[in-house]
UniProtKB/TrEMBL annotation:
Organism ancestry: Bacteria, Pseudomonadati, Pseudomonadota, Alphaproteobacteria, Rhodobacterales
Keywords: FAD, Flavoprotein, Oxidoreductase
Reductase C-terminal domain span: 317-400
Top-level taxon: Bacteria
Residue ranges constituting the FAD/NAD(P)-binding domain according to the UniProt record: 3-298
Cofactor(s) this protein requires: FAD
Protein name: FAD-dependent oxidoreductase
């Protein structure tokens, strides 16, 4: 009986295994995860779960009964230590499992601050896993002082939760502005004002010299010599694809685990999907770090394991919740040369990205209609006249006709 082994029990791994069964795969399926928890959602970790508004069981992607009823074996809390593509085996603890097809859905891991910068001190946290958030939650007490290093979406989400819970918060961004890598200045300005309005301090264009303390965080010293008192620190300085297993097995890497358009890696019978995998788009190997991509790509790989032979066509979308703002992003803004801002109803704002006359992406802040219209246009390969977009009197739905 054929055996599919999935390394990585996150969103992509769970989606791949579930889709195999939905496609009537009759063989064995084993999903292996480093963490002891069953496959769970990550986005709510830095939002509802950190706020205490969601119980752990509500994070789970499937019930325990689902895995048993669908004959999907979960091996949790024990990492894979080796892959042998020639022998078609993986080593898990003391056990060696043979596979017919192997899927790598290992995700990504947070960048950590170097020990010489004080990154190993107690009270220095990252935001990635259930265990990370459980460790942070105990310190989220009104009046305590949090320094967030990194002004990307993860850092800003953690800052927003901390302020809602009454902590004193300072965000440090080494780049000239927050969201430098992922958003236009107009979007960054919106979120800078949002955080300032809720009492969070943001320091831009300034690096961290080191984290101070004896055994535990006491403060953060900036490059300019300022010292910020801190009871704890969250390092939100990005993630990197988890490629160590693939690299050790001789599987080709390029901005992650390199795959072709159908999810195949350089090793026979080995596939990859999700945050760890790069795939070809317009001649470049790209990675998309999002739930939507993890699910869509993993489900395509499942279909291709079953013989579908289909190429992956991404439909990128992302979201972030901060205070009372829901940001929804459609498309990819890479290569934009201008943006158009649009004011919607109430306090809704959207930023539309163009390369020449081509619509690339939309950032929609509390504006689900702009998100929906922009997403449909981008997925259809259509554009929208920037003059009409900028005119608040324009009915956005008319752009779809």
């Amino acid at each position: 009986m054929p055996h599919v082994v999935v390394i990585g029990a996150g969103q992509a791994g769970a989606a791949l295994a579930a889709r195999l069964r939905a496609l009537k795969f009759q063989g064995e399926i084993t999903v292996i995860g480093d963490e002891p928890a069953p496959p769970y959602q990550r986005p709510p970790l830095s939002k509802a779960y950190l706020l205490g508004e969601m119980e752990e069981e509500r994070l789970w992607l499937r019930s325990a009964d689902f895995w048993a009823e669908n004959r999907i074996t979960l091996k949790l809390g024990t990492p894979v230590t080796a892959i042998d593509p020639a022998a078609r085996t993986v080593t898990v603890g003391e056990e060696v499992l043979a596979y017919d097809e192997l899927a790598l859905t290992t995700g990504s891991v947070p960048r950590r601050l170097p020990a010489e910068m004080g990154g190993a001190l107690g009270g220095v946290h990252t935001v990635r896993t259930l265990a990370d958030i459980d460790a942070i939650r105990a310190g989220f007490v009104p009046g305590r002082r949090l320094v967030v290093i990194g002004g990307g979406y993860i850092g800003l989400e953690a800052a927003a939760v901390a302020r809602k819970l009454g902590l004193e918060v300072t965000v440090i961004e080494m780049a000239p502005r927050i969201l430098q890598r992922v958003a236009a200045p107009e979007t960054a300005l919106y979120f800078r004002k949002l955080h300032a309005g809720h009492g969070a301090a943001i320091i831009e264009g300034e690096g961290v010299d080191r984290i101070l303390g004896e055994g535990h965080v006491a403060g953060v010293r900036l490059k300019d010599g300022r010292v910020l008192p801190a009871d704890f620190v969250i390092a939100g300085v990005g993630v990197v694809p988890a490629t160590a297993l693939a690299e050790a097995a001789g599987i080709a890497l390029e901005n992650g685990i390199r795959t072709d358009a159908r999810g195949r890696t350089s090793a026979a019978n080995v596939w990859a999907a999700g945050d760890c995998a790069s795939f070809p788009l317009d001649g470049v190997q790209i990675r998309l770090e999002s739930v939507g991509n993890a699910v869509d790509q993993a489900e395509l790989v499942a279909a291709n394991i079953m013989g579908a032979d289909k190429d992956y066509v991404p439909k990128p979308w992302f979201w972030s919740d901060q205070y009372d703002c829901k940001l929804q992003i459609a498309g990819l803004n890479a290569g934009y040369d201008r943006v158009v801002a649009r004011s919607g109803e109430s306090e809704a704002v959207s930023i539309w990205y163009y390369a020449g006359d081509r619509l690339l992406a939309v950032d929609a802040m509390n504006d689900p209609r702009a998100f929906m219209v922009g997403k449909r246009l981008i997925e259809a390969g259509r554009t929208a006249d920037p003059r009409l977009v900028a005119d608040a009197a324009t009915d956005l739905k008319a752009l779809l006709r």
